[in-house]
Protein: AcrR family transcriptional regulator
Amino acid sequence: MQDKQAIPSVWTRPKKKKEQPALSVEHIVAEAIGLLDEEGIEQLSMRKLGARMNAGATSLYRHVANKDELIELVVDEVYGELTVPKVTTPERWRENATEVAGSLRAMMLRHPWVGTVLGQVGLKSLGPNLARLSGEFMAVFQAAGFPVLDADKVMNTLISYVIGMATSEAAWLQLVTRSGKTEAEWVAELLPRAIEAAADRADLAEPLLASSGVDPAVVRDDNFAYGLETVLDGCAARLARL
Amino acid sequence: MQDKQAIPSVWTRPKKKKEQPALSVEHIVAEAIGLLDEEGIEQLSMRKLGARMNAGATSLYRHVANKDELIELVVDEVYGELTVPKVTTPERWRENATEVAGSLRAMMLRHPWVGTVLGQVGLKSLGPNLARLSGEFMAVFQAAGFPVLDADKVMNTLISYVIGMATSEAAWLQLVTRSGKTEAEWVAELLPRAIEAAADRADLAEPLLASSGVDPAVVRDDNFAYGLETVLDGCAARLARL
DNA sequence: GGATGGTTGCGCACACTGTGCGCGGCATGG
DNA sequence: CCATGCCGCGCACAGTGTGCGCAACCATCC
Structure:
């Protein structure tokens, strides 16, 4: 146990310093995202994060007020992965909205912990990235012809759908990957039980059977696209009604 | 410190037993919901829950496998508060869907912690109440004329929207109530900062200003209703397109 | 030069968490 | 009457977020 340098003796490397970029908010946030992607939200602890950066747990508190603030930073950072396409022509609002919705969903599936965390960070966060995004996304709907007040509500509607859907998908995905089995194995295992549970209503089993052979990821993609089209149809109806 | 009865002496009430219904799964779940409603999710601990029931923390483990299972039970229990109206006429599917969406949102605002927890309990739960509900809700859309496969997807779309919207509302509500201030005070305080942040895009401030004087709860109700109508319009379009 | 003051990393400690283990009392059934 | 099961509980362990104060560094100024 004496190997811990109680005294920085002469031959102990005085630590060239700066060999590591040391700690910084950006670095901490980046490593936190890495840890979250690899191990999930409930495995993120300040101690573990510190260890991953060859640092003590409490050292992080020099750069981050507390864990909640860290999470706010992390969430805004992943929002930064999203980009809203520049509005080309007003007629293309539907393609633009589809693209934004798709990239938001993709981001939430890439970082499955985001969904579980969104409910906890209130709107108090509204980091710079999210602020920029919502502004750019608003522009899409305004260009489409929605008045500002409507554009705001329509945008929230679409985002709510995507977040709701993707959160549920991500929870499922985390459950699957944590079990070690593949998604297809999981549904194959769950399917007979579900069918049995709905034995009295044979029709309820039909959607399950219909997608029994297909790649579950494709099924999820289709379901998402179906709902997205439905919501966009609703937006279009609103737009037509002026 | 000797007051702890190391030995149950004769004059120590041998505890008439059964004076309390003691511990039971139902009782535990009910108290957990009470604690969650009062203090929020991060304040729920087995020790605190035990104390609230005049019991030790670990006593609960006789009836509940672990905290995660408790939460699954609790979530299914609050799903039990929802009721799906009996299908009257197929034409009334829209009213029926509106009613279900509204009661789901109301439940999630009554129990603001539900949203934060939904992302964590995967579909692994699917307790009896949720199973019953989705079956009954499916029936509404089938009666409306949707084929089974479409009814399933349309239902998921609607639910995703409601959950996404209500989760965000609930997070905001929890933030507000935890601060002690009223919702109106909060927005009044936040408004100038938001307007300043969007100084370069004056039109972005318009939605904020438009609702500056109104009761925030009414604004939220309106926004939810607006999005709900939009989604239902999309469903109607799908139905018309057969 | 040397002193000074601010910044950074860290060890320690505290209050708290979920939960496995085993004890001792209780109710029931033979 | 004893035996068998159940139930509540105290103890203990590993792990958490985080406040406090020390030690080492850096840049600045006398």
